[in-house]
Amino acid sequence: ATVAQSPVPPVSAPGTPVPAAVGGVGQLKPGADDERVTIERDLYRLVVTSAGGRLESFRLNAYREDSSAESPALEMVDSGDVLPLGVYWTRPDGVVVSDQGLSYEVRVSEEPDGRFSIDLGADGPAQERIAKRIRGGPGSYALEYAVEVKAGYDTSIGVAWSGRVPQTKDRLSAMEGPVVYLDGALETVAAVSVAEPVTRNGR
Questions:
Q1: Is 116 a residue whose pLDDT tops 70?
Q2: 108, CA 20 to 30 Å: which among 5, 25, 27, 98?
């Protein structure tokens, strides 16, 4: 992994960003507001930013943006204000807040077999502790993502994902959407637009 120094729509401001805590790979590094972690494997290259703990890029090495010889690897993350893996949670007063303005601590661990883990941690405006973990490895496009919000009050949490919906004549081939495990069942949601968020509640 190489670490290079280098906004989810406003729901409500999370308060003053808490600075992250710097060290080498495998240790918590106080991140700059825009610190990036890059992981390269045989099938993909991903970039995670400490600003908001977001997935900034996920490129598929075996695929291209178009048929031209100079085409870059296919980007699966739609660049814009809404980057994937943002976290929302509900305060006791019912207000939904996000981690958009938080600066995350970052820890990267790599195994001899090529598997890796990116751990991110940040403190919220009301003493919440937000923890994220992204895991992956060679030979598979799958990423494991886990998130936890520890708060001194009961809360529900949500995760944001944004992606590109291709504009094709065949409507079925242009459908994509979240797949989530809720209340003991796997649920898929078809989408032909990313203009509006899709919300599902459960555990």
A1: yes
A2: 98
